[in-house]
Every structure is written in structure tokens, then in C-alpha cells.
Amino acid sequence: MLTVLGITGPIFLIIAFGFIAVRSGLMGQGESKGLGIFVLNFALPALLFKALSHHPLRESLHLDLLTIYSLGSLLALSIGIGYGILVQKRGLQNATLLAMGMTLSNSAFMGFPIAERLIGPAARDPGSLCHG
């Protein structure tokens, strides 16, 4: 239990600090939007580039993993859209937005740091998922 808390705790602390900063007015909407743009357009691509640059692309690219991940994502998206339309009685646009919120993984923001702390440097290689 303490191991999991030690890994996820700092992530949730950063989220809490961001929440407090916005709620207290320390960070306004403009600043948080700018920070989000920086993270999505610069920091996250740099993180992914660094992770992928340690090995040749042919070692990191596994079509079987990509196929399974893509099919699972499409299935989850379809279930989410169906849930939004059939159960919640939303229109297609609203149901699609709901489904995207339900299915888009947070692996880059949370999964990668957690895997790196649990597995170590081997987690930097996306191919490590296929090598057991």
C-alpha cells in the first residue's frame, strides 16, 4: 500500500496544488490555459521523444501491440457512444464527447511515470510491454 502511495502520491499532490492555485486565484484561466498548451505541445512530445529515442524504431514499434491497443480503444469508444445515446439519451455529438472522456487514456501523464517508478528504466521502452 505504501509503495503505491509513494508512486501515485506526488502525482496527486501536483494535481492538488494546481487545483488550489486555480481556486485561490493564484493562477488565472489564462495562465492555466498557457500551461496546458505548453505541456501538450512541448513537454509531452519531448517526454515521448526522449522515451522513444533510446532504441531504434523497429525495436520499439510492435504492430501486434498497436493493433490490440487500437481495437480495444475503438471498442471502448463504441461502448461509450452507445451508452451516451441509448442510456443517457444524448445526441451523437454529446455522446461522442462523453465517450472520448471515458476512453482516452491518461497513460502519458500518469501511466508513464508510474511504470517508470515501478519497473525502472525498462519502462522507457514501449516495447517492454511486449517482452513481459
Short description:
Helix content is 76%, strand content 0%.
What are the salient characteristics of this protein?
132 residues; mainly alpha; 2 domains
Summarize the structure in words.
The radius of gyration is 18 Å and the shape is globular. It has two domains: 53 residues, no CATH class; 77 residues, no CATH class. The two termini are 24 Å apart. The model has no long low-confidence stretch (mean pLDDT 80). Helix content is 76%, strand content 0%. By secondary structure, the protein is mainly α.
Helix coverage percent: over 70%
Largest sheet: none
Tally the structural domains: 2
Tally of DSSP helical segments: 6
H/E series:
HHHHHH
Strand residues, percent: under 5%
Low-confidence stretches: none
Termini Cα gap = 24 Å
Beta-strand segment tally: 0
| Mean pLDDT reading | 80
Silhouette: globular
Structural class by sheet pairing and helices: mainly alpha
What's the alpha carbon Rg, rounded to whole Å?
Answer: 18 Å
Question: What topology does this entry show?
Answer:
Elements: H1 2-23, H2 29-52, H3 57-60, H4 63-87, H5 92-103, H6 107-119
